[in-house]
């Protein structure tokens, strides 16, 4: 805290006034002249209406004639007798001005930040010169977003705002700080997907110990709410999306008896409707829900790309089988319910309108693997893929504008070990989070989360190497409430685990 001292000259002047004109009586109480023993008479009689006693002071010429019990103390005075007497007076013989504070005129201390007393318009005053504690040097209570990193209130950074998606999380901790981690009883897990809910929890679909799918819902602390087996979902890539229109209902995709399968579930895991793609050798790899609640399912039919569009109640509105090349592996929706689909071969993006019109097809992107796509609030698409060189994987991020033209791509710097990206999630401002795995200091595989700005700058990269943290992360979902949830496997038994981290 910075202490601002009163002027020594002003203190000397006030003291000289009292001594020179004889305004200080034998029994005066100069420290608190208006609320001392004499004042108690007025306070007892009139309470808060007229608590102060004002009267002529012996030896002080020019005192005002008006005196008695009053509501407000005089503007200023010079050591008038009151502490042991009956009256406190307003003494106009003492120098001063109308805008001087009472404390300055009577020789008391001026309100000042840093004197250890909270006064005037101060929020706090801890009497020290430490700016990064609970009370700043401006005598303002420390809060997240004030631009000062306050370790005493748990901050590890403070960039002057409470926005997610930059170098400092919305709660003034570094992005990736673990809020909680959970390991569940399911073992031998090899695939999973996650979506966040409006209540701060998450819904999951996963395969552990066999091809049968399971669903699980957890609350905002990661505690299990319900678990449901879906024995009909026997193959295909795990995928899940939560509805913003019908709160916390969600859709999953996969395969049933050799045909693509879509299931729309309630928030407790039971389902509302099921739709099967009536084509042999069809599979749904990924699903999305647009702003109107419509469901989009992307996949393949016998190796050829497939895209289906359903209403929120499960009626098929349109489908596409006309693109050539490999499967549609990932899908996302965004502004105006536009649809973006990632194709595995060639590695490129197709965009469709909500009514099924093909809007554009991007040029082929560098790198190739079946990975993920996300979209920001402005309609920019972010694609994660992987490129192998010398048997080492490094993930790439590609940014495409709303017209499908590539804006930039970034490749993870080679460190001599794998840095593989499995999934990408995108905040409305274009900040992206990649989930995957790398090799840690222990030379074993560890979970990886990597943050990138809308311009492609690497903001933060976290590996989780403790025993209770994942060896790989399959998927990540972000919330505008300032957190992300990632799903993966933990420990030698490959148990299903979740991480909730700051954004």
UniProtKB/TrEMBL annotation:
Matches recorded under Gene3D superfamilies: YVTN repeat-like/Quinoprotein amine dehydrogenase (2.130.10.10)
Keywords: Disulfide bond, Repeat, Signal
Record carries keyword Signal: yes
Annotated spans, Disordered: 93-118
Residues making up the signal peptide according to the UniProt record: 1-25
Stretches with biased composition (Acidic residues): 97-109
Name of the protein: Molybdopterin oxidoreductase, iron-sulfur binding subunit
Higher taxonomy: Bacteria, Pseudomonadati, Myxococcota, Polyangia, Nannocystales
């Amino acid at each position: 805290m910075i202490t601002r001292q009163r002027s020594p000259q002003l203190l000397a002047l006030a003291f000289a006034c009292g001594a020179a004109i004889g305004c200080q009586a034998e029994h005066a109480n100069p420290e608190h002249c208006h609320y001392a023993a004499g004042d108690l008479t007025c306070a007892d009689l009139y309470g808060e209406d007229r608590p102060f006693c004002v009267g002529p002071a012996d030896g002080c010429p020019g005192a005002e004639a008006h005196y008695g019990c009053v509501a407000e103390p005089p503007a200023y005075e010079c050591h008038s007798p009151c502490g042991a007497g009956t009256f406190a007076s307003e003494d106009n013989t003492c120098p001063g001005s109308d805008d001087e504070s009472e404390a300055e005129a009577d020789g008391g201390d001026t309100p000042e930040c840093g004197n250890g007393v909270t006064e005037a318009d101060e929020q706090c005053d801890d009497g020290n010169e430490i700016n990064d504690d609970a009370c700043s040097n401006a005598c303002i209570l420390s809060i997240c977003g004030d631009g000062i990193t306050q370790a005493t209130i748990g901050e590890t950074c403070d960039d002057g705002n409470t926005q997610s998606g930059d170098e400092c999380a919305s709660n003034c901790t570094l992005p990736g700080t673990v809020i909680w981690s959970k390991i569940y009883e399911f073992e031998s897990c090899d695939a999973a997907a996650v979506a966040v809910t409006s209540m701060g929890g998450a819904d999951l679909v996963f395969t552990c110990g066999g091809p049968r799918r399971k669903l699980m819902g957890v609350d905002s602390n990661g505690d299990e709410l319900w678990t449901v087996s879906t024995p009909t979902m026997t193959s295909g890539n795990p995928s899940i999306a939560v509805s913003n229109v019908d709160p916390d209902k969600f859709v999953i995709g996969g395969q049933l008896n050799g045909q693509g399968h879509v299931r729309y579930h309630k928030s407790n895991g039971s389902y509302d409707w099921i739709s099967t793609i009536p084509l042999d050798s069809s599979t749904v790899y990924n699903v999305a829900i647009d702003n109107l609640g419509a469901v989009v399912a992307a996949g393949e039919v016998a190796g050829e790309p497939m895209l289906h569009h359903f209403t929120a109640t499960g009626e098929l509105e349109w489908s596409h089988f006309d693109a050539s090349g490999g499967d549609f592996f990932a899908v996302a929706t965004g502004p105006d319910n536009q649809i973006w689909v990632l194709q595995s071969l060639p590695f490129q993006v197709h965009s469709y309108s909500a009514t099924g019109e093909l809007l554009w097809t991007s040029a082929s992107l560098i790198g190739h693997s079946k990975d993920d796509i996300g979209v920001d609030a402005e309609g920019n698409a972010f694609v994660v893929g992987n490129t192998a060189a010398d048997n080492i994987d490094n993930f790439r991020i590609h940014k495409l504008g709303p017209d499908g033209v590539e804006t930039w791509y970034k490749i993870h710097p080679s460190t001599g070990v794998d840095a593989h990206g499995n999934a990408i999630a995108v905040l409305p401002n274009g900040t992206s989070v990649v989930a995957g795995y790398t090799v840690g200091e222990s030379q074993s595989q560890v979970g990886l989360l990597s943050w990138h700005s809308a311009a492609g700058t690497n903001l933060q990269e976290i590996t989780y190497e403790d025993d209770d943290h994942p060896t790989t992360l399959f998927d990540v979902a972000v919330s505008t409430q300032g957190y992300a949830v990632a799903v993966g496997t933990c420990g030698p038994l490959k148990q299903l685990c979740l991480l909730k981290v700051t954004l």
